[in-house]
Design brief:
Largest interface: A-B, 25 and 31 residues
Number of helices of chain B: 11
Shape of chain B: globular
Number of domains of chain A: 2
CATH superfamily of chain B: P-loop containing nucleotide triphosphate hydrolases
Structural class of chain A: mainly alpha
Number of helices of chain A: 8
Radius of gyration of chain A: 21 Å
Order of helices and strands of chain A: HHHHHHHH
Helix content of chain B: 25-40%
Radius of gyration of chain B: 18 Å
Number of strands of chain B: 10
Oligomer: heterodimer
Strand order of the largest sheet of chain B: 6-7-8-3-9-10
Number of strands of chain A: 0
Distance between the termini of chain A: 33 Å
Structural class of chain B: alpha/beta
């Protein structure tokens, strides 16, 4: 995985990118709340919101193919949940409603994260007085997610170099070992990071 | 000269029972640059963690360590940590913030400086390590040499009076090593450097401590210790090339 998986296009230059992170965060929140909370939205209401998002997407110069792929990546989760609605009476309408609403919300977030560097979003959240512990957790997650993925990848490669026998059982066994090792290593790294934080005055 | 760091009969045992330090004693004077050498697993890193009060067990019981004349315990911990800057072996452990700026700013922020003072500290520290303009970069994106220098900037931003460095050159290419050496030479602070890079020791340190299996087995002026072939080989080290052609007589 690339280190900028979450905000790959966050550093482009466009009118959307130049807006302050805090403002974008508020707008995204308003759009999401509108979509989620307004029950009386008509087809035209949804179309208007989708149009607005499309204009923002075009203005942001983020490749549309990338946005579509990112959305498709998330869509299975949405559809997975929405499918349950089909079992109720009048299910197809509810199904469509859930899929549309979720897709609009997801698209808003995909746009936000690809027009704003993650670090700036964190600053905006800090200004919004979100609990410091939550922000620290998010910052550490963003920083170490990729270190962890790289580590898993190195371990996978090292394993692969010495894996000669093919077979499903062997593969699962190896995967189990790798996951376990990764867990132990992460725990130890967490301890070292905490030590490094303490060494610079963290309380 | 008074002792800046004084360690008396320091012992440490890990949870799993392994005895890492078995009675270590030494003293380091102001503005001295001391090399800490020894084989893998000698206890060097464990010893360095103590200098910053990182291991919690150390804070219980009678203090065996003092920094600027103050015993290291819970009450003095903040002062000790602001006086001693510790460079970790793995730069990825030390750079835990999303941007270079945030990381260098971390220390000054913890010490309660206001925003503009923090920004000034960060600028000065990054300039000192030659990384102006790196503020918005993500640490994950940097080369090893750059990461190492950002780590160092993070320490310098706290104005430490003692720098404790754990293997500062272990993963650097020759140019990275050369630059780091030049940088360290410029920094006016008491320095303690744990390393296998014996050329670095010869160039920077006036005195060395040899640690093996948790005890100090030898200490003295750099050249006389490092050119003692027998001693070096006995403790998993070797006489560095730089000293091969120098003869004491």
């Amino acid at each position: 995985m690339r280190h900028d998986f979450l905000d790959r296009y966050g550093r482009l230059d466009s009118p959307v990118h130049r807006l302050p992170a805090g403002l974008k965060l508020v707008i995204a929140l308003v759009i999401i709340l509108t979509v989620v909370l307004l029950t009386g939205l008509t087809v035209w209401g949804f179309a208007a919101l989708a149009g607005l998002l499309a204009v923002v997407a075009l203005a942001s110069r983020v490749p549309l193919g990338f946005l579509a792929r990112r959305l498709l990546l998330l869509e299975p989760f949405v559809v997975g949940v929405a499918v349950l609605a089909l079992l109720q009476p009048d299910g197809d309408r509810i199904f469509l409603l859930i899929v549309t609403k979720s897709t609009l919300c997801l698209f808003t977030m995909v746009l936000l994260s690809n027009t704003t560097p993650f670090a700036e979003l964190l600053v905006a959240l800090r200004r919004a007085r979100l609990p410091a512990l939550l922000i620290t957790t998010l910052a550490l997650m963003y920083r170490y997610l990729f270190v962890l993925v790289d580590e898993a990848e190195r371990m996978r490669r090292a394993r692969a170099c010495r894996t000669f026998a093919k077979g499903r059982f062997g593969l699962w066994k190896v995967l189990g070992t790798v996951v376990g090792q990764l867990f132990v290593r992460s725990a130890e790294r967490a301890e070292r990071i905490y030590a490094a934080m303490c060494a610079r005055g963290w309380k | 000269m008074s002792a800046v760091v004084e360690v008396k009969d320091l012992r440490y045992r890990y949870h799993d029972g392994a005895e890492a330090l078995r009675g270590v004693s030494f003293a380091i004077a102001e503005n001295e640059c001391v090399g800490l050498i020894g084989p893998n697993g000698a206890g060097k890193s464990t010893l360095l963690l103590h200098l910053n009060g990182i291991l919690p067990e150390q804070l219980e019981g009678a203090p065996t360590l003092s920094v600027f004349g103050e015993p290291v315990n819970r009450a003095t911990l903040d002062r000790v940590r602001s006086a001693v800057g510790l460079l970790f072996q793995d730069a990825d452990d030390q750079l835990f913030c999303p941007t270079v700026f945030d990381d260098v700013a971390f220390g000054p922020q913890q010490f309660g400086l206001n925003e503009s003072a923090v920004a000034a500290k960060v600028r000065a520290a990054l300039a000192q390590v030659g990384l102006d303009g790196f503020e918005k970069r993500s640490p994950h994106h940097l080369s090893r040499g750059e990461k190492r220098r950002v780590c160092l900037a993070g320490l310098l931003a706290c104005d430490p009076r003692v720098l404790v460095l754990d293997e500062p050159t272990s993963d650097l290419d020759p140019r990275g090593k050369r630059e780091l050496k030049a940088l360290l030479r410029q920094i006016a602070a008491t320095k303690i450097i744990a390393t296998h890079d014996l050329e670095l020791v010869v160039e920077l340190c006036s005195r060395v401590l040899v640690l093996d299996r948790g005890v100090i087995v030898a200490e003295g002026p750099t050249v006389s210790i490092l050119s003692n072939e027998r001693l070096m080989l006995d403790h998993g080290l070797e006489r560095p090339h730089i000293l091969q052609h120098r003869h004491p007589h």
